[in-house]
Structures are given as C-alpha cells and as structure tokens.
Design goal:
The complex is a heterodimer of chains A (about 300) and B (about 300). Chain A has about 300 residues and is an all-alpha fold. Chain A contains 15 helices and 2 strands. In chain A, strand 1 and strand 2 form a beta hairpin. The longest helix of chain A has about 30 residues. Chain B is mainly α and about 300 residues long. In chain B, helix 1 crosses helix 14, helix 4 packs parallel to helix 7 and helix 13 runs antiparallel to helix 14. Chain B is about 70% helix and about 0% strand. Chain B is built from 15 helices and no strands. Chain B has 2 domains: about 55 residues; about 220 residues, MetI-like fold (Orthogonal Bundle), CATH 1.10.3720.10. The chains are: A mainly alpha (about 300), B mainly alpha (about 300). At the A-B interface, helix 1, helix 2, helix 3, helix 5 and helix 6 of A face helix 1, helix 4, helix 5, helix 6 and helix 9 of B.
C-alpha cells in the first residue's frame, strides 16, 4: 500500500523502494558490519592463526602447528587454572541463584519501603572493578579485615579464623563470597520475574487447596525458570572470564590457588610475551564456554517452563 | 501446572481460630523484616566501613574492635593519595574516554538497532542471527589480534583503542535497543514514509525521541562499564599520565598496599562518580537489567 502511494509522488531516483530500503539498511548497520568483519571475524581468524605460531608480536611469527595446544594440556599451571575457574564458576553460579532468588522472594512479600531495600541489595552490584577489589582486599584481611573482626566478635578464636585470600584453601571461597555480595543484579531480574507471574495462577492453586510451599514449588518456581535459565547462562559465561578481582587481589596466588584461565592468559601473553600460547588458551576458553552454553541450552527443555508450550 | 483443573473446588483449609492466624501473620512479618534488615546490614557494611576507615587518622584505623564513629576525623588519607599520584589527571582521562564512549555507543547502537527493527532490507534476519550468535564469544579470543592491530598502527598508549571499538557498537546493546524499538508501532513509519520522510528522518525525529528511556539505559550502562573497565586500559595504557582511574588506583594499591585509610580513600574517590550517577539515574539502571532479562 505504501508503495502505491509513493508511486504517485514525484520520483527522487530510479531505484525501486525495495532497493532503496536495502541500501538504507546496510548504511545504517555499517558500524556493526565494520565491527563484525574487523573486530570479530577478522580478529577470530587472526587469533586462530596466531595460536598456531610462536610469537612475541614484535619480531615475527614462527609456525608451530598444534604445538601450543599440545603443550597446554601438559602444562600443570593451565590444568590448575581450569580447575580453579571451574570450581569458582560452579560454586558462585548456583549459590548466586540461591542468594538472589531468596532476596527477591523476600522483597516480593509486599514489604514496605521496597525501593529502599532494593537499593541496598542492588548497590554492591553496580559498583565493580578495582575499587571494589581494593575494598575487599581489606575486608578479607586476616588481622584488620571487617570479616574476621566480625567473626571474632561472634566468639570464634582468632587462630582458627581463615586467612582468606592469603591461604590456598580459602582463596577461591573468598572470591565466591565477593561474587555473592554482587548478587543484586540477578535479584532485580528475579523480582521482575516474580512480579510478572499472573495472580490467577495462585488463586487457582489456592482453590485446589495448595499450601504456601506447594504454591512456591508448583507455581512460582516453574514460572520463574525462564528467568533463572537466562541468568544462569549469563553468569556462567561471565564467571569463566573472571579476571579483575583476581588480578588485583591475589595475582593468582597464593601458590596459584586462585589462578584463573583469563589471568593465566594475561600472564602468558602480556607478561611473558608468549602470544601464540595465550591465543591457544583463549580458544580453549572459547570452546569451554561454548560447551557449557550448549549444555545449559540443551538441558533447558527439561527444566525450563515456557508458557504456550505444550507439555509432552 | 498440570493439576490445576479439578472438578470440585475445595474450600480453603484454615481451621485455626482467627486470633492465632493473626498472631502468625504478625510473627511472620517480624521475621521477614528482621531477615531483610540483617541482610541489608551485611550488604551495606563494607561500604560504611570503607568510608569510616578512609576518614580515620592512621593511628586509629587498625583498631579492633572497629570504631564506627571515629573520635577524630581527618581528610589526611585523601590528601596523601591525591599528592602521591596524579589522581585528577586519572579522573580527566577516565572522563574523556567515558564521555566519548557514551556518545559513540548510543549513536552507533541506535542506528544499527533502528535498521534491524524498522527497515525491511534484504538479508536482515540473517545478519541479526549472526549478531546474536556473537554475543557468546568471549572477548579474550579477539583480544590479542586487536592488540596487534593497534600496535601496528602505533596507537598503543593512546585512547584510540579504548574508544574506536565502542563507536562501532556491540551486539548486546544493539539487541537491547532493537527489542525496545520493536515495541513502537510501525504505523508511525508508514505515515512518515507516505509524507516522503527518509529513513534517517524517521530515525532522528520519531524513533529517537520516543526511545529516550531505552537510550538512557544504554548511556548508563556505557558509563558504568567504561568507568570501571580494567583489562582494556591495563593492556593499552602504559604511561602513568595516560592512566584511567581504575589502573591508577591499582598502581596506588600496589605502591601503598599496607596503608589502609589511604587505599580506602582512593577507592572512595574512584567509586563516587558511579554512586552519584546511580542515585540520579537509578531508574535506568534497574530498567536496563529488566529489559535484558525479560527477553531471554
């Protein structure tokens, strides 16, 4: 219809409206096209090639084939970084879901001053980066730190208190704790999800004689699974790339107890100038993330409830 | 959701006397608020501690138990930090980069998202699918070649590597804005087209003015991300006078690691802009999270 009207207007060019749309479309997405071809596709190909070489990026590239990858799987530090990152991710992600969901459930109980509570819980997730890492370095300080001083007040003797980021055993749990402090972002998501659950479902459940627990388990949780799913996916991807806190607070120590994959990549590449090796690490990280993303997406049909989808 | 449809609705089971159910409800409320307050206390405590510690003279800062309201307040720690490293310069650098990137990101992602949401061009859906699939790619994969690229251009130790990519938009923001643009009825475009408006006029005079909240979300997120960005400046900037606040603070912490009030004070300095922006634009922060989450 639009096209017919346009026909009656004075012609501006001999191009058909469709051709003009296509030209306009590609002009508008030009920034993205440049981004895609240079910073993504081009860079990925270059990264793949670099991962098959030995290079400091300055004096040239020496082709070594799969050597970097073979070395990596025999590199105890790399194996360690895989373990550390996996332990971190698979602790902080489920615990994060629990903490964020619990707060969201509490805030969804028609509380007074909702805005105030939400603000307090959300605030830590807004601030991030080095300032927070510096703050937490002190919070976790074994002698003067807020955490240990607080635990001491609870009557735990000083010599049995953990040394947090200064001990091999507690380094990763320290970062998990810090991660949970920032669970507020996910909390907001769950809160929005909870508020989107139609009340008639609860009414129907009540008519059926469901108690609070049953309502929670058979209405709230199923209706929230899409939000949990999305959030879990994003946190897994993010947690595998954890870097700033670890770099600032422990540098991977003590004794590599908190050496994460990206930190190891940074050290090998930008500190030791072994960029081929570092690129190979990046590709392995990519496949790990791809694998877990696919796993979560594949498993979603078993536990994620989508409205409008027929139950088999 | 399988057994919601029963034939005879059972009446609500509540045989408690009214009094006890009321008591139960009040006790429940008390517990609810107690738990909430306790949690809020734990979440807020590190901030409070950071601020009081930064205001204490060094002699009192390490006292146990913690003095929440110090007997003596001083700004010495702030002055010390300010004198030791050029923090005003770090601030200036961060503001330049952040401001440039907010403008660039809002501009580029709104243009791209507009095309994906409104212009029916050949190959649109395929390109959008490609865009979505790049969201999974960890930045580390492309980090080294992009670094190589900038070092070949001799642009390492300049702000360009930190600014140009943002002006080329990113998948996440395009996705977010496109979702928002899709909610504006297409009738507006049709009417404008009939009047002979170009796509650019529709973009600048109809869609952008109607999308201020969503563009605000993009701007806020661009601010928060760029202000706190660490890996980028760490890799690209190597002269102290080029440093941003995040790597400047890291340097300070490295040099003065045993000085609690001083490092805390500089952390406060680094956090203040984020906190101010957050309090002013809280709505946009919250909306951003919700918009991204709704369309999982």
């Amino acid at each position: 219809m639009t096209e017919q009207v346009l026909e009656t207007l004075p012609k501006r060019s001999r191009l058909t409206p469709r051709a003009r749309n296509t030209i306009a479309g590609y002009l508008f997405i030009l920034p993205w096209l440049v981004h895609f071809f240079m910073l993504i596709l081009g860079a990925m190909l270059a990264s793949l090639v670099i991962s098959f070489t030995k290079t400091d990026l300055l004096t040239g590239f020496k082709w070594v084939g799969l050597q970097n990858y073979r070395d990596l799987f025999k590199d105890p530090l790399f194996i360690k970084s895989l373990r550390v990152t996996a332990i971190y991710t698979f602790t902080v992600v489920p615990l994060g879901v629990c903490v964020a969901l619990s707060i969201a459930l509490l805030l969804n109980q028609k509380v007074a001053f909702l805005g105030f509570w939400r603000l307090i819980y959300y605030l830590p997730s807004v601030v991030s980066g080095v300032a927070v890492a510096v703050l937490w370095t002190w919070v976790l300080n074994p002698r003067f730190g807020l955490l240990n001083v607080g635990l001491m007040r609870l009557g735990i003797p000083q010599d049995s208190l953990p040394r947090w980021i200064y001990s091999e055993k507690w380094a990763v749990p320290s970062f998990v704790l810090m991660g949970l402090w920032g669970a507020g972002g996910a909390m907001l998501l769950y809160l929005a999800g909870l508020q989107g659950i139609p009340t008639h479902l609860y009414e129907a459940a009540m008519i059926d004689g469901a108690n609070a627990w049953q309502k929670f388990w058979h209405v709230t949780i199923p209706m929230l699974t899409p939000t949990i799913f999305f959030n879990m996916l994003m946190s897994i991807i993010g947690s595998f790339q954890v870097f700033t806190q670890v770099y600032v607070m422990t540098g991977g120590g003590p004794n590599n107890a908190s050496l994460t994959i990206v930190l190891y990549l940074y050290q090998r590449g930008f500190v030791n100038l072994r960029f081929g090796y570092a690129s190979a690490i990046a590709w392995i990280l990519f496949f790990i993330i791809l694998f877990f993303t696919m796993l979560v997406i594949r498993s979603s049909s078993m536990w994620v409830y989508y409205e409008g989808e027929l139950k088999k | 959701m399988t057994s919601t449809a029963r034939v005879t609705p059972r009446p609500q089971v509540r045989d408690w006397p009214l009094f006890w159910s009321k008591v139960g409800r009040i006790v429940g409320k008390v517990i609810l608020y107690a738990v909430l307050a306790f949690g809020a206390y734990i979440f807020f405590l590190p901030f409070a501690w950071m601020v009081t510690t930064s205001l204490k003279p060094a002699a009192y800062a390490y006292e146990v138990p913690i003095q929440w309201f110090p007997k003596k307040i001083t700004l010495d720690a702030y002055f010390y930090g300010w004198k030791t490293l050029p923090f005003p310069l770090f601030y200036r650098n961060t503001i330049i980069i952040t401001a440039a990137n907010i403008v660039g990101l809002v501009l580029s992602s709104s243009l791209v998202a507009f095309a994906f949401a409104r212009i029916p061009f050949a190959g649109r859906d395929a390109w959008f699918l490609i865009l979505l699939s790049t969201m999974m790619l960890p930045a580390q994969v492309t980090l080294i070649p992009i670094y190589l690229f900038w070092s070949k251009l001799r642009a390492v130790n300049t702000f360009w590597p930190l600014i140009v990519p943002e002006w080329l938009t990113n998948a996440y923001n395009v996705f977010l804005l496109r979702q928002f643009f899709m909610t504006i009825p297409l009738d507006y475009d049709d009417a404008a087209r009939i009047d002979g408006a170009s796509w650019f006029r529709i973009y600048s005079q109809i869609i952008v003015p109607m999308s201020k909240p969503a563009l605000g979300v993009i701007a806020i997120q661009a601010f928060a991300w760029n202000w706190n960005n660490f890996l980028g400046p760490l890799i690209y900037l190597n002269e102290t006078r080029k440093f941003t606040i995040s790597i400047g603070l890291r340097l300070f912490q490295n040099q003065q690691s045993s000085k609690m009030p001083e490092t805390m004070a500089m952390s406060v300095v680094a956090l203040i802009p984020t906190l101010i922006v957050f309090f002013i634009a809280q709505r946009y922060f919250i909306q951003g999270i919700v918009i991204t989450g709704v369309k999982g």
